[in-house]
Amino acid sequence: MSRNESLYSARQNYYVYAVDRDFGPFFLKFCSYFPFNAKLCLNGHEYAKRQLAQKGIAFEALDNGIRKCTNPKRLQAICDGLSAAKIDALLRKWLRLLPHPFTGADRKAGYRYDISILQAEFSTTQVLDRPLHGRLFFEQVIRENLDLGRPEQIERIFNRKIPRHARARFRTRVVTQDVTPSLNVYYKNARIKQYHKENRALRTETTINNTYDFGIGKRLHNLAKLRAIGFAANQRLIEVERLSHDCILSEDTLQAINRPVTAGRQRASGLRFADPGAQALLQALILFRQLAQGFRAADLRQHLAALSGRDPAAITPGAVTYQLRRLRLHGLIERTPNSFRYCVTDLGWRVALFFTRTYNRLLRPGLAAALPALPALRAIATPLRTALDRLTEKIDAMISQAQLAAQNLTHLRQASFVKQG
What we know:
Structural class: alpha+beta
Number of domains: 4
Radius of gyration: 33 Å
Number of helices: 14
Shape: elongated
Number of strands: 14
CATH architecture of the largest domain: 2-Layer Sandwich
Order of helices and strands: HEEEHEEHHHEHHEEEEHHEEHHHEEHH
CATH topology of the largest domain: Alpha-D-Glucose-1,6-Bisphosphate, Chain A, domain 4
Strand content: 15-25%
CATH class of the largest domain: Alpha Beta
């Protein structure tokens, strides 16, 4: 045996993978050389699943978590009950069952394993009741919170005073694994990671790799203090995060306006964004918002006729009544009690202003700048059209190269057949 081989054999590690009745799967790693260090790795979510199963509480598992539980309060009590004493008891139980480097004589002499915390992870999982909107929500969170790694934000998240000239590295990273992005915020050796888990939940987890970063010792009895720090950091991160607008609620509002609506026996069509008739109605609402006394059906008829270039007499009372019902069922207007007047709601004014300004100032001119230039506009080069023209040229070049390669291959095959003949 060579010297390198002897060193390798002397430094072997022995892994023991086991399943405990109360903790579920875990593993122990023993070093074969002095001082015979060992590592215990367990998962609190597996502990919670085992306890729920033993107590007969129905639940639906999430990868490394719980998606649904019939008794959430009991589940939270189980999670809170995972203490340092229970973890220590797990180790002592399996050290009695497994062979390990300390012999009976060593234990009688006072040599025994004691647990210190090498790494602790504390996670908060918020399961979404509408998973389809979860990815949209989380991507908006990432865009709005790229500055979370700054010292002033770290002070709020970890509740610690950062010296002005601190040498610690502060950073925020967005890491994409496959198609799932994650937001990572760092403080010394600790990290908070937030990601959209299994398209079902928002997972926020604080990982502490050095307890001394928080002025706490490494012994297992400090677990309760670290737990308080970890979960408080999760909660503060969620509180610090901001959104310029609630993208989930705005998505619901957008879809509700564009789709047909039914209230009792009354039904009205949706106000489709690019429909000229819907745009005319919304532009009328902007004008009526300024009227303190509200507006009447005759006022709506006059404005619809002016906006659509029609004679007011050509618009029947029934058509106007339908448009009023359409706006009312969508919540954009409401009728003044004991009168035939209507007023524009706050929602109606905001929707009308946003829809019309977006359509007239962004969509129409933007589309004109993006589409192939008309003969009258070819002399006007816009940045958007120029960029799209270049992209089209690149794509056409790739298509031409692919066709050329196929033609060359055909010529080679024909030459080969001729040669064989």
